[in-house]
User: Fold these one by one.
Assistant:
Number 1:
Amino acid sequence: MLNKNRRITFPVIVSAPSGTGKTSICRFCAKKLKGLKYSVSVTTRPKRKGEVNRRDYYFVTEDEFKLWIEQKKFIEWTSFHGFYYGTLKEKFESMLENGYDVVADLDINGGKNMMKRYPEGVFIYLLPPSMGELKRRLLKRGTDPLSVISQRLSKVFEEVRYAKGYTYIVVNKTFQTTVESIILIIEAERLKTSRFETYLNHLKEEEWRE
Amino acid sequence: MLNKNRRITFPVIVSAPSGTGKTSICRFCAKKLKGLKYSVSVTTRPKRKGEVNRRDYYFVTEDEFKLWIEQKKFIEWTSFHGFYYGTLKEKFESMLENGYDVVADLDINGGKNMMKRYPEGVFIYLLPPSMGELKRRLLKRGTDPLSVISQRLSKVFEEVRYAKGYTYIVVNKTFQTTVESIILIIEAERLKTSRFETYLNHLKEEEWRE
């Protein structure tokens, strides 16, 4: 969307296997990079230790979520391991219109939905350094029973194949390097000619003279 | 081209109106960024003060240049203000094959030729902050007679329109900021999924297990 700085703003969708810490990675990117806002998702899953309502997620009941689906309040929504996740249309679009790029962490399905809606968006997939490393991370977090972890791991390899549909791949070595890579990608994407198209089309020769 | 690091290397073409200092900008980028090499062009134009043969250009006679055209030694060549400029095929390709990304500063025609040959390449156009600023720079450099400067300026606005064919636009405010932006773009481009395609296609599940 074209804003007053005459640059077209864009969504940045970050996907990763569960247990990557993608929510805190994305929130931190928005804190560090000027002009970037974090899109807080709505979910029906229970709040985990350390999570804050409205900062990490909007925690709602299944009834509320279903009502909002009917009211078409979501740009995209999906269900995963029995819980619902969604992105609020009005909030998301108003950030773009107000001149911000918007980063959202979504699962593969959410990512795919956003690719259809925002083909000009930036899609980043965080790849775990290895399966063993991912397993260790999930166990260390200790929020999920072993059965869920094992179920998740078996889905990871399948997911890795999806990474090919994304524009960028970041190997998620450490929190710090991953944040740096995402910020780097967004800064480069801001320099893309396509983000200035309207501006260039309306460029008058006089603007170049002093 | 796929190298031993299993990443596909790519050419980075930087174009700009004359008088932008794009040669020293590109050379400096290659000095600063690991894995990036500068492609030295061949030219028939006279050596300017401070320029070094084989570092800035290969300075050759018109006869030599024409012979090399016949021998198909160039990936691309063009003539500009009565002089020839070209890129040596063998050198350029061997750098890519040996695992380096390669940055070259070329004029608009050279850029267009490279777009056809390397559609996966990265094309950056350096836009002057304003026409007045560009005029001041050309006058300050003092290497060209006023008639040439005026001829160049009249071509600049036309060139700006070509910028739209490039992938990225960098407003050339200072040497430092421009170098930083180009390096940023290359680092982000290295994370593109398409640069890993062969690697991802051959990914075996075992590689992810420890």
Number 2:
Amino acid sequence: MADSRFFYNSGSITLERIISLTGAELLDKNADKNLKFNDVAPLDKAQPDEISFLDNIKYADSLKYSKAGACFIHQKNIKHAPENMLLLVTEQPYQAYALTAQAFYPTKLPKNLIYNNSSIASSAKIGANCQIDTFAVIGENVEIGENCHIGSGASIADGVIIGNNTRIGANSTISHSIIGNNIIIHRGVHIGQDGFGFALGKGAHIKVPQLGRVIIEDFVEIGSGSCIDRGAGPDTIIGTGSKIDNLVQIGHNVVIGKHSIIVSQVGIAGSSQIGNGVVLAGQVGVAGHLKIGNGAKLAAQSGAMSDVPEGAAYGGSPAIPIKEWHRQTLLKRKESKK
Amino acid sequence: MADSRFFYNSGSITLERIISLTGAELLDKNADKNLKFNDVAPLDKAQPDEISFLDNIKYADSLKYSKAGACFIHQKNIKHAPENMLLLVTEQPYQAYALTAQAFYPTKLPKNLIYNNSSIASSAKIGANCQIDTFAVIGENVEIGENCHIGSGASIADGVIIGNNTRIGANSTISHSIIGNNIIIHRGVHIGQDGFGFALGKGAHIKVPQLGRVIIEDFVEIGSGSCIDRGAGPDTIIGTGSKIDNLVQIGHNVVIGKHSIIVSQVGIAGSSQIGNGVVLAGQVGVAGHLKIGNGAKLAAQSGAMSDVPEGAAYGGSPAIPIKEWHRQTLLKRKESKK
Amino acid sequence: MADSRFFYNSGSITLERIISLTGAELLDKNADKNLKFNDVAPLDKAQPDEISFLDNIKYADSLKYSKAGACFIHQKNIKHAPENMLLLVTEQPYQAYALTAQAFYPTKLPKNLIYNNSSIASSAKIGANCQIDTFAVIGENVEIGENCHIGSGASIADGVIIGNNTRIGANSTISHSIIGNNIIIHRGVHIGQDGFGFALGKGAHIKVPQLGRVIIEDFVEIGSGSCIDRGAGPDTIIGTGSKIDNLVQIGHNVVIGKHSIIVSQVGIAGSSQIGNGVVLAGQVGVAGHLKIGNGAKLAAQSGAMSDVPEGAAYGGSPAIPIKEWHRQTLLKRKESKK
């Protein structure tokens, strides 16, 4: 079980509620739906009162010897399960597991509490049931919705708007931004600062005022240490449900579509447009003014120097279709082994 | 127009003042120099009371259909302009635009205000017209010049010296540093910490005391989340007018010359020397103890493993002359398509 | 000598004490061991009352003309030394220098002082001789050992345990972690936040609760701006004596062994295991679920996409044995020059 110093297990849950939460189908129609489970756990650690999952057939052996009381599993894999395990059949075992884990370990609601030693401008509006932690700073004309949590030492600059159910991590700084609902911004994130805009000269460079904003749509998550510059004139936009990992750089005017995945240490240069459902793996670079089509995938450390078509998988630097990149890799190895 | 929640437009400006600010030449000698403009805007959005610019001939079509009242433009491109547009001819249209935008949206001066809940050591000296924000910490014997702005939660450690007209962003930390005039340090920047200096052993590694400083010269800008380690014995130095983007790593003893451009997520290892007017594009790595000559350019994601001569353009990892790198890229693609 | 604004030289040290600190052998058996030295310095700057070192034979010329009063040197290099210099013979001159520099410039002990305007939960336990700086936040049930220093604006969340003699830098944030003894965490480091765990869907992605912790063993050092995510179920572990540079990303469930070196901007994806004594050079990427064997070395900017065997040196992206990578680099250059 998770360390109780840090995690709060909300108590046992019946099989019936698990089925209702996840939509999984109980293989054994006669099983007692009032049976209670106490936790989630990986296959190799789960006990009879715990629920596990099999997502990757690589772990079939762990399944075979698992003591888990119940297991989310795909139809095609049920033959690998031991006899006494309750099987919860679903197309998406990992998603079912995630929902079940959320039920055992629900996100803490913000306390309805504004700490004395936070600093809140008199013109700021703060909705019901918000928690504003110690040494947080809320500027003039800031508007914060309901059920928000602003971490300690976070700085929300003048005029920023934040929706409902949004969490801003400790020591993050936000300015020039409109932030939506149900968003998680982790700690030490910097959003809304000037983009890197200079009219380059042979000698001194002239700073170009950055007159746009950052728009963050609902259900976005942004990892620790990431930086999102505000637009130069148009806005920088992060679309609904996109998830951004730690230490990612997003330049001015970048537009990211819906439900895209941006892994750690990716850098996206100014004015590039990333489609919906795109995956940029770790340390990918995207040059400026490019279009990465919907559903495209870039392999780790690759560098897009030109547009990537919808649905394409690319790798390498400069990035090329991934099959071609794999072929190059093999050819090079053959050559160098001669 | 820029969102007035975040930006303050200082009001209309006459054609005469714009000419005087930028040195551009009015093509139509008979135009009324008392004509007033209200804002800057890109060609496709500009209205008759707004000023735009054409820098890249790619946008000739936007120019053709633009409603902008006036436009900064290079002599060679005036033939593409529509009839009723006032043309402001200049060698550097983007620079002229930047100066005009600065006039419409001037940088906010610091308020002459030290917030009650900042923490300032009694031995610190703070010049006239400084703004020290909430929860900022100013250490013993710190010296800050005039017209400086220290953001909320920033920490200026004992002994640091800061010149005039310099801005330190919220939640940045600075120690062991001499910071000049007219500098912008964005938020969450960390300057002056120990460099990564260890006498490596087979078992434990021994920490080598880092006895140098960070010297930041005038007109430098440093992006959010960047880290600049102090020198090991000599100093780490960032030269006049150099601009550093977000999430950049600068190791101990690095010396950067004047007016160089260091783009996001670049890493420069210890003791390397970067010349004047160098451009390191996004995610470039420079190994330790190298010299990158004046005016050299490294393409995005390239990695300098040896010196780069003055004026050279390099690409690839390890970095080689960029023409050769492009040839390699083409040859590889030919091979892999066979 | 180091700038006295920032560094405190603790005063002269006798040759005898230096020998005892470092285990070096004095070549001239008749030299006066009561001779006093006042500082350390590089060969080209050292004065007769200062101690230097020769580690790399490249600097033999600097040795030849150096005025240093004494020098740590390897037996094989003593022939390069000038006549009047006292030679301190050792297998590891740089380590001896590091220990001597530490003696001249000892780490400041924390003041036994809890600043008024820090915020400490009533249930937190803080050991003897700790310094808690201004605007630091210590959460409920936190336990901090003796002689610790918590920097200004640092946030130590509920339940975190910290051992003895550990320093946490300004504006760092720590949660869900067990931190050992004699650890240096620099400024703006974020430890213990949720890892990037999502059950990916075609549309919305489902957040997977991250139920593990971060365990940091003794004598670890972690550079500014680095992020270490907590485990998803198992823990994220940083082994004894490992040194992590600035802006490094460590994903959930990563395990790093003992005395490994992780250079700036490295990214290690979730669940990878890094052995003991591993060196990951700058900007290296390690994909998820890999094993990097004990003593392995990855060259700067390389990307491990599969396991790396014990003791191997790898380079390139995808990373391959470094000799092969060098051969590829040479072959490509030959081709492209044809």
Number 3:
Amino acid sequence: QIDSARLWGTIHETAQFGATPKGGVRRLTLSAEDKQVRDWFRKACEEAGLEVQVDALGSMFGLRKGRDMSKPPIGVGSHLDTQPTGGKYDGVLGTLAALEMVRTLNDAGIETELPICICNWTNEEGSRFAPAMMASAAYVGDFTTDDILSRKDAEGVTVAQALDTIGYRGDAPVGRQKFTSFVELHIEQGPILEAESKTIGVVDSGQGVLWYDGKITGFESHAGSTPMPLRRDALATLSEIVLAMESIAKKHGPKAVGTIGEAVIAAPSRNVIPGEIAFTVDCRSADAGIMDALDRDLRAAVAEIATRRKVEVQLDLVWRKAPTHFDPKLVDAVENAAKQLGYSHRRITSGAGHDACNLNTVMPAAMVFVPCKDGISHNELEDATQTDCAAGANVLMHTVLALAGV
Amino acid sequence: QIDSARLWGTIHETAQFGATPKGGVRRLTLSAEDKQVRDWFRKACEEAGLEVQVDALGSMFGLRKGRDMSKPPIGVGSHLDTQPTGGKYDGVLGTLAALEMVRTLNDAGIETELPICICNWTNEEGSRFAPAMMASAAYVGDFTTDDILSRKDAEGVTVAQALDTIGYRGDAPVGRQKFTSFVELHIEQGPILEAESKTIGVVDSGQGVLWYDGKITGFESHAGSTPMPLRRDALATLSEIVLAMESIAKKHGPKAVGTIGEAVIAAPSRNVIPGEIAFTVDCRSADAGIMDALDRDLRAAVAEIATRRKVEVQLDLVWRKAPTHFDPKLVDAVENAAKQLGYSHRRITSGAGHDACNLNTVMPAAMVFVPCKDGISHNELEDATQTDCAAGANVLMHTVLALAGV
Ligand SMILES: NC(=O)NCCC(=O)O
Ligand SMILES: NC(=O)NCCC(=O)O
């Protein structure tokens, strides 16, 4: 059993780095606050006797030796970056539970057959730089390191510049640290476990993701003197797109979601009809066929709206992540650990994307979920209980011990 | 006849102050660029022999003496501030045509019975500080000077601070400079004169204006893991409000317009359902009964949408300007001047608000319109011909001469 109070203590200690007045965390990837938590994590890893490496995209790896160093380690971990108005648990729980596991093994003097490597992946959230799960995507070869280094945030700062600013552009080439398999603990970020009073979610699949960048070009004109029928209003156009996305997603019942999260009017003024708007779209499904339908229906709706309103709408797919089917043997291993420890559990699909989803494309991977209050995440009110966090960390540890061998 | 080339020259000379790459002007009220054009205007007034006064809200008055100094002057002018992406003519034409009139009278050695006072009113546009036509509204007593001085822009800078920064907080109390009557020349900012091939619009009325500040409070949550039916999406809510405003305005045919010009998501992120949005509404009609209907229908629509979507929507009326009916005798004077000069003309309603609309509530006022290309205004592409501008300036001068007496 891990030390529940110690795990809880580290979660609340690191929540200082970027703490918001409403009790959440603002720790955008590669920001000054991210540097603070990274420095803390590096020191904690070193104090736990781990050998720390940082790769060229800033992902951090802490290695605990095993008896058999000829095989790659079992990877365990998550991320320490947050949303602009994020919570204390998303990513943090999985990373600090991996650290807690190492501390527990050290205290108990347990040696494993295979080595264990605990990870903090750069930019899992995707709100400062696109795509989300950026570093693990580069790790599995979906993008080249140079491509990712050149990605820019809204202020035009590149990933390379941001890494250099906080001193976290490491020496290790991306992908050099191999793993035998990968396990990640995370809060569910949805309402199912809580609604069914289950402690552990055995994650067997994950939704695919489509991300688009959009731009509407209508025509700026005077709000008072431009007759309604002559308008080419970019905001009215966006409004129809938002509602179309909503109804397209609803059409597929619980099997799809669709969101416009960002929308910026170019030169806003009370008495000017908006002429130009930039926006982003996020839509998802665990079913590849539905993903195709979402893409097709969204494009058709946008084309119809643009033609009717005589505006130009550009819609560029900037990221497509296929649905995830986690490795059946690893999923069983998670389920066995939950069973042996006596926790109530159920199989579950992840609504959110995770680094484990990327890693699963090149190695066996699996995930453990614990409930979060009201299913709320990506919100400063995100909450989870100490008992559930500890339960998740125990399932994580026992899964890893089963994979690494004692 | 005024000097058409000289008028055209001053329009293009002042268009440098805040010139944009697309050929427009960005000269927000009380900005550094506004200071530049104000300094230019003060110097030009002084060189034309006018006595310049600046009032406590920065409005500028250049007085040309008449034979009878016991009566207040005829006021003539407009404004020199622009929209964030504004054009070269909106406000500028009316202010510089007033200057051109003085230069023409000086050159011809014409003395008038009543004095003439040419004006540059502060913050007519209303895009940096609300309301629009701010200084003339304070002039007629709709707001106190202190109230206006404390209004803030989006960055939290007050009118008082902005005035002090550019050195244009004058000594003259607001309202001290009296006028016998007021005449303003402006581009139409709508499509009617051009469509009917008329050179002069004799403005007999103006739309009333309703301005609201709105705020939507939904709930931020994860774009991937939050099921569609559980969402309280602030942007989807705004989208319904935008389309409701559009259809409410359309219901009244050409007699109403309605626009959402500004909308800002509080902490935007691609994979976060928007939780909070601030927005503004501008709706107008020349019919007081329709204005009441617009207000009632908008509030009802907003309430229904908010209840159905389980979000909070705050909608505060921040400005209400009644429809304008310009002084019949002055309207006739404008029409007579147009007739005598042989220009094609028609009576017209102003879609936009103007300082003359405010001044008309305390003195006889009227306006002269000239066509602008495709009815486009509040856009960098705003355009007008030298011939039409000169025609408008001539009608303006002959109206003023009729009122001031030669
Ligand atoms: N787990 C999580 O919130 N990931 C962020 C990436 C996404 O799914 O949008
Ligand atoms: N004339 C003009 O564009 N005025 C700005 C105020 C308004 O009507 O919105």
Number 4:
Amino acid sequence: MQKIVTEAHEYASRWLGQGAQANYIPELSKLNSDYFGICITNLAGTTYGYGNFNEKYTIQSICKVILLITALQDSGFDHVFSRVGMEPTGDKFNSIIRLETGNSLRPLNPLINAGAIAVTSCINGANSEKKFMRVLDTAKTILNNANVSYDENVFLSEKSTGDRNRALAYMMRSSGVFFDNVEELLDVYFKSCSILVTCAQISRMGAILANNGICPQTGKLLIDPFFVRVVCSLMAVCGLYDASGEFALRVGIPAKSGVGGGILGVVPNRMGVATFSPRLDAKGNSICGLKAMEFLSQAFSLSIY
Amino acid sequence: MQKIVTEAHEYASRWLGQGAQANYIPELSKLNSDYFGICITNLAGTTYGYGNFNEKYTIQSICKVILLITALQDSGFDHVFSRVGMEPTGDKFNSIIRLETGNSLRPLNPLINAGAIAVTSCINGANSEKKFMRVLDTAKTILNNANVSYDENVFLSEKSTGDRNRALAYMMRSSGVFFDNVEELLDVYFKSCSILVTCAQISRMGAILANNGICPQTGKLLIDPFFVRVVCSLMAVCGLYDASGEFALRVGIPAKSGVGGGILGVVPNRMGVATFSPRLDAKGNSICGLKAMEFLSQAFSLSIY
Amino acid sequence: MQKIVTEAHEYASRWLGQGAQANYIPELSKLNSDYFGICITNLAGTTYGYGNFNEKYTIQSICKVILLITALQDSGFDHVFSRVGMEPTGDKFNSIIRLETGNSLRPLNPLINAGAIAVTSCINGANSEKKFMRVLDTAKTILNNANVSYDENVFLSEKSTGDRNRALAYMMRSSGVFFDNVEELLDVYFKSCSILVTCAQISRMGAILANNGICPQTGKLLIDPFFVRVVCSLMAVCGLYDASGEFALRVGIPAKSGVGGGILGVVPNRMGVATFSPRLDAKGNSICGLKAMEFLSQAFSLSIY
Amino acid sequence: MQKIVTEAHEYASRWLGQGAQANYIPELSKLNSDYFGICITNLAGTTYGYGNFNEKYTIQSICKVILLITALQDSGFDHVFSRVGMEPTGDKFNSIIRLETGNSLRPLNPLINAGAIAVTSCINGANSEKKFMRVLDTAKTILNNANVSYDENVFLSEKSTGDRNRALAYMMRSSGVFFDNVEELLDVYFKSCSILVTCAQISRMGAILANNGICPQTGKLLIDPFFVRVVCSLMAVCGLYDASGEFALRVGIPAKSGVGGGILGVVPNRMGVATFSPRLDAKGNSICGLKAMEFLSQAFSLSIY
């Protein structure tokens, strides 16, 4: 396994100079854009990594998975999906159009920005801090790391450049999707996006999801298996923004990408896979990450289709 | 297996009176709307059916899978996907909007109407008849039935009410997606939609796809395994129109529905599943079919996520 | 003239019970919905009114004309129209779609909500209070009334229900249309919408616009004639939301309506016309007001087309 | 008057090399792109021209005015406006989106392509030839020229490249806006677009419209004054595609442009104005024509606002 991980790194490294880091969140561009790490964790709990797989980066949109799990645990399936749909969109991740034109005015799914904000409104907590504590609790559990924290500078950078997300949130509040204080809600969302993770941690999170919510190391049930299936099926149809279909075809596993450069992959009943490399393609996905995922998919026959 | 198929039929029959047959194609509404059949075919080639699983109905949108396989065989992956994308849409199956507003003016995927028409333009044949012969050849092979034919009345009914598809086709020709004669191209498409199938045949087709293109009965390779993966991954992300995400969550297998009342399901490496019942929900999917698929998914743990 | 105004009132009163007051701003619905006033002011400065033409109501969207005049005076034509277009939209007055899909991300014109907010960002003033003072100054001048004030309760009601406008504002700030503090900017906008006016005052404002910016009573030039033409031509093409075309055809004069129930009409080189009646049709225009305008247009041959 | 027409020509000639001829209809690009003519006709019936004002060109979209007048005469106001709206759009002239998303599925107004096609379906005539004879009759009357004909090559060129218009027509027929044979209907439309006119003729047509339908030369009533007002008010709000607002502001008269390079202007109760120059701006309007219109508007104070 280690050999193939190493080969995947070697193969995908050819694309290392291509693409560009996300620049709409200024703090993000301070990261070394040549970082590239791959990590897989099997259901025995063994982890194989290569490259910068222990380097910290901000989780960004991968946090949408953690937010969804937290919301499902706090408010239940029916309540969460009264505020958000479960369908792919074909639009950009930050699109606002369907909040005006949709049959329902709910966002289409929990993995686009509008949907993740609506999901955040379903998390328990009397105020912004307490809600975020809930998210952090889930993150600590699922990342198997008691020391999970967020990057204050990235958080502040997201907050100061987050007008598009404010537009989404106010649009939803005007339609009655939720009635929360928008700035407090977005603080939870922006802090969640700024959570620091490593490729190794994300691969372990993938392994828990691949193992129906049971931690491979401890055998403890960490997430309700039904919630795992909810999360994995949504990742499969809309986890990579408007490149989800191509990813299904070329790689074929439930996955979620983030503009921080990370990708979380789940191979049900087999393993968790994670990549990290900050340079992105036009759709916001890590270029080396995608190439590594393709290599691993072929080498291990990971596609579930 | 037979027992569970029977139970699934019993369970889903409770919804038998709900919904309505498609009425925009007048001929379709002549079908007995109380028909309900279920059929599964395992990889040993054994078929288990219950109810009206040998009743003939028109394949409708399930033909998009056959059209795509034929086009891939005739023109290759690169050519086909230069004319159509591979992303879900979030729109109705007959939507025209993205042909005007999309970044690319190609339709978003081969399983919506516009995409299937673009795919049809990639099928070999000097004229309409010869192109349709190619489709029928694929259908005969993949349905394991040398006598496959189409329903002339349904074809004429589709042709006479097919203005929306004409609009889609002329819109694409005006953008240079293809340059075929539109009426001839649509004749191929409408005839393909009118192909007569049974639930049993569709479940066998599902088994071939589940078996990486190899016929379970004969062991012969009928479809290139890569094309099988293309088809299955696309069915998984956009096979049930704008209910694909919910189907992924509740059933969790690649599938394709048609307004004739059929659903084709593929459980990779395990079995083909088919249901048939003409009454549809608001999104155009067979109500009893969906309920039966849910039951079977739970009973057999079919979900791939 | 008085006779025809009286007849117009009588004629249009037949529709008095139809339609409904705006209810999305709770305070607005406290107004007596049976009020109905008509007033015209000719270029000699004489005013003819009938019904509740001296009753106070909130100006609502008619303030967009005052905001535009103020912004043109403060920032000039080029700057204002670098932030907003000059084209009709065909969309609802509060639509957000084109801020995402437009070729330019500027709002299409100054008379829809997004456009009026962008225009407000072009008004001078170090803070919210000072900017609003500028608006109030213009209003006092153009309404020929030193005591113009706003309704604090309506303002607070608009502010507390103004999430759709917040969405529009943050969407524009995220695209760089302006960089103002959104809450402060909206305070100016909401206060401007809450300015109290009477039908008589609005008809005098119409007369000034009809008179190329010169006050009929005093002979003083109050508005640059070029700005008058900008305002009148825009009112002609998009002053009545998505009913502007029908109003051009049936009435044929530049006009601006507000959900407070008022309509401002300008007959270039002839007179100002104003109506007030709170019950609105589905597009947000005063039903009796429209009927009165039609009557007056025919009686006086007002149409400029 | 002649002097100012000459000056307008001189002034606007500075922009003579800018822009490009329409190229989507191949035949159109055969025209000498340096042609530039201006013509005005006052209500005494006197015509003042300069440059290539007697050069023939194809009327293109200006025919929408003639189609609308013919349809109003044949089917009446209510019937015509049951098939088409009267509102500006903010979209491109050939947009199809609102035929799917609009509240009503009728096209928004008679001066965009979809609307003009719907209007054509309201013209009397048992077949394509007879319908077109009706159009030609109106054209002969309103252009004051018994020899009006159309350019067969341009017609064939439009027909062979008219797929976008076919898409619009089939889309409307699928929604029940009309039920005509699409190819026959489009033949009428394409032939109407190919009618040959001169600047002088179009200015005389403008004078008739400016004179409430009465021919200045003969004193005969040629068009119902109510239909004249319908046409002029619609030209005012949406006659120049998505540049109608800017034209209202800068020129301020009802007008209609065509991609053949012509512009028809109507100054109610004063004169008809016409320009012709084939090079167009990005929105499809003649560049020299617009400049000449602006010059004449200022020189003669033509703006009605």
